[in-house]
Amino acid sequence: FYGRFRPDPERAAAKVAECLARYPEDPALPPIAADSYDQIGRPELATALMRAALEKTPDDLGLRQVLAKRMLTQGDRAGGERMMEEAARTSGNPKSWLHLAGVRRTAGDPEGALRALDEALALAPDSEEFRFARADVLMDLARYDEIEPIAAKLQETTFARILRGRLALERGNAKEALAL
Question: Which of 6, 79, 108, 163 places its Cα 20 to 30 Å from the Cα of 134?
Answer without folding.
Answer: 79
